[in-house]
C-alpha cells in the first residue's frame, strides 16, 4: 500500500476520509533536509575544533544546504528528462511538473556542484567541507528513499521472483504492489521488489560507516572518497533489480545510474588511494567491496 499524501496515512490509521494535498514525499524530504543539516553542522563544528575548517564555518551550513537542495530538485528533474526524452518530446509539461520520476543522481550532481560553488564564494576550503557533509548527504539519501517507498513514486524494482524468496523473509520485504501509488501505476500480484526499502537500509549502513570514520587521520578528501565508493557500489547492486531505461554503447548495455555509479566507484577509489596515510583494515574492506561493485556492473542481467 502507498500513501502519496499525509492524509492517506491518517485515513488508514483512523478510518477518516480527509484529503489535503500535503505530499508524503515532500514532508520526508523536508525532514531529511533538517536532519542532514543538523548532522552536517555538528561535523563541521568538530572539524573547526580540529583546525580542518575555519571558525564559524558552521554558520554557513543551513544556507549551503538550502542552495544544494534547490539545485538538487532541478537536477533530479533534468536527469529524469534525459532518461525519458521520448516522453518529454511528446508531452514536455507533464514531464516537467510530474510528482514522480525524480533522478537521484541528477539531484546529487546538481546539489554537490551548487554546494561547491557556494562554499568557494565564501572562501571556505572545498575538500574538507565535502568530507564534513558526506555523512549528512547519505543520511538524507536514506530518508529520501523512505519517501519513495511510502509515496510509491515509481522507484520500485522488477517483477519479484517468488521462487527465490527465502521462507523466513516477510512477503512485504520481497514483493509489493504499491496500491494507490502516486505514479498511478497498477502492479500485478505478487508485485515488484521494494527496492526503496533495500536502498534505505543500505544507505543507513553507509551512513554508519561514514560516521564511524568521520574523525579519520588521513588527508582531506578521504571521507568524501569513501562516500563516493560506497554510494556507487550500493547503486550498482540495486540496479540489477530496478526498471530503468537502458543504453547500448559498443555492445555494452547499461542504465544511466549504472554509468554514473561506475564513475563514482572509480573516482572514489582514486580518491581513497590518494588520501591514505597508511593502509588499514577498514580501508581494505571498503576498497575491496567497491571494486566488486564496479565489476558487477559488467555482469549480465
SSE map:
Elements: H1 6-14, H2 24-49, H3 61-83, H4 85-90, H5 92-97, H6 104-121, H7 126-151, H8 195-212, H9 222-238, E1 246-249, E2 252-255, H10 256-275, H11 281-296
From the alpha carbons, calculate the radius of gyration and give it in angstroms: 20 Å
Looking across the biggest beta sheet, what order are the strands in?
1-2
Tell me the fraction of residues in β-strands, as a range: under 5%
CA(first)-CA(last) distance: 28 Å
Count the helices. How many?
11
Helix fraction, binned, reads 55-70%
- What summary fits the major beta sheet? 2 strands, antiparallel
Low-confidence stretches: none
Order of helices and strands: HHHHHHHHHEEHH
Structural class: mainly alpha
- Count of discrete domains: 2
Q: What is the general shape?
A: globular
**Oligomer category:** single chain
Overall mean confidence score, pLDDT: 87
- Strands, total number: 2
Q: Could you explain the architecture of this structure?
A:
The chain has 301 residues and is mainly alpha-helical. It has two domains: 1-155 and 183-189, no CATH class; 216-301, no CATH class. Helices cover 61% and strands 3% of the residues. The chain is built from eleven helices and two strands. It has helices at residues 6-14, 24-49, 61-83, 85-90, 92-97, 104-121, 126-151, 195-212, 222-238, 256-275, 281-296; strands at 246-249, 252-255. The chain has a two-stranded antiparallel sheet. Strand 1 and strand 2 (252-255) form a beta hairpin. Helix 6 (104-121) packs antiparallel against helix 7 (126-151), helix 9 runs antiparallel to helix 10 and helix 10 packs antiparallel against helix 11 (281-296). The mean pLDDT is 87.
Amino acid at each position: 500500500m502507498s500513501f502519496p499524501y499525509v492524509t492517506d496515512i491518517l485515513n488508514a490509521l483512523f478510518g477518516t476520509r480527509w484529503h489535503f494535498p500535503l505530499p508524503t514525499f515532500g514532508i520526508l524530504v523536508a525532514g531529511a533536509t533538517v536532519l542532514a543539516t543538523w548532522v552536517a553542522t555538528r561535523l563541521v563544528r568538530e572539524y573547526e575544533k580540529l583546525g580542518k575548517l575555519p571558525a564559524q564555518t558552521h554558520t554557513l551550513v543551513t544556507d549551503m544546504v538550502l542552495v544544494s537542495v534547490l539545485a538538487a530538485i532541478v537536477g533530479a528533474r533534468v536527469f529524469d528528462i534525459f532518461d525519458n526524452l521520448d516522453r518529454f518530446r511528446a508531452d514536455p509539461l507533464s514531464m516537467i511538473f510530474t510528482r514522480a520520476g525524480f533522478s537521484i543522481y541528477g539531484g546529487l550532481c546538481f546539489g554537490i556542484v551548487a554546494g561547491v560553488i557556494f562554499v568557494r564564494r565564501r572562501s571556505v576550503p572545498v575538500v574538507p567541507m565535502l568530507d564534513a557533509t558526506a555523512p549528512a548527504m547519505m543520511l538524507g539519501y536514506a530518508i529520501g528513499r523512505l519517501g519513495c517507498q511510502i509515496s510509491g513514486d515509481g522507484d520500485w524494482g522488477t517483477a519479484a521472483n517468488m521462487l527465490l524468496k527465502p521462507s523466513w523473509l516477510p512477503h512485504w520485504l520481497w514483493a509489493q504492489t504499491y496500491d494507490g501509488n502516486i505514479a498511478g501505476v497498477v502492479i500485478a500480484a505478487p508485485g515488484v521488489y521494494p527496492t526503496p526499502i533495500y536502498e534505505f537500509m543500505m544507505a543507513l549502513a553507509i551512513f554508519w560507516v561514514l560516521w564511524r570514520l568521520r574523525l579519520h587521520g588521513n588527508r582531506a578528501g578521504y571521507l568524501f572518497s569513501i562516500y563516493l565508493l560506497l554510494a556507487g557500489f550500493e547503486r550498482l547492486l540495486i540496479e540489477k533489480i530496478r526498471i530503468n531505461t537502458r543504453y547500448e554503447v559498443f555492445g555494452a548495455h547499461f542504465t544511466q545510474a549504472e554509468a554514473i555509479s561506475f564513475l563514482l566507484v572509480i573516482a572514489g577509489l582514486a580518491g581513497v588511494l590518494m588520501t591514505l596515510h597508511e593502509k588499514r583494515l577498514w580501508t581494505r574492506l571498503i576498497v575491496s567491496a567497491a571494486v566488486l561493485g564496479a565489476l558487477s556492473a559488467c555482469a549480465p542481467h
